[in-house]
Amino acid sequence: MNDKLWKNIKEWLYVLVSFTLISCFLFQPFKIPSGSMIPTLRVGDFLIVNKFCYGYSNDSFRIGTFTFPLPKITKRLFPTLPQRGDVVVFRNEKDRNQNYIKRIIGLPGDKIELINGIVHINDKPVEIKEDGEYSIIDEGEYVVYKKFIEKLPNGYEHAIIKRFEFGQASLDNVGPFIVPEGHYFMMGDNRDNSQDSRVMEAVGFIPLERIMGRAECIFFSSSCSLFEILKWPFSIRFERIFKTIN
Fold it and tell me: Is 231 labeled as catalytic in the residue annotation?
């Protein structure tokens, strides 16, 4: 092997090792695969996920669906507890260990119940107000959703959308759920099209050690797939690039 080739190999190895270390310990890219977090996140958004904000568990050292085979961490390292309203990426053991992204609605010990589509936390309904309409293409069909601003008990405000009237969707009347110690209750912002903690057999409560990190900002966004090369120049959503997530 000549010196030039070996030098090139070493340079690529340095890049690979650096990317792996950064993805495991600091920041990791994540692509939005579904519309469950619309309007906050859209299919084709690429995010930066903060891996160190909550400390580290074995699932922190996970890139895609691959988890590095490290010794089992029995207690989260450098833990900082997630807050209500945070948008987080986590591993869902009930769905072939897929990575999900949802918003934290319920904290350990909370009582969560949905009554006619309104979230009740510890028997108190969250504040909600209308915020116009939101139009999307849903399975090839142009659909106008109603948009609302939801205010959580800690004052955190975020947008949600609903396709159906309050009380008419399949998950509008569920619960009550008592969040176990060390677990969190997750919901999507697209309330009528999100498989989340309301569906116990598919998601349920999420343990802290399954949370990989907090979504911070969108670094790229496109409405087409990576294979639609000719559409790339016209598909970039410039208005979403560098948008912070709240």
Answer: no
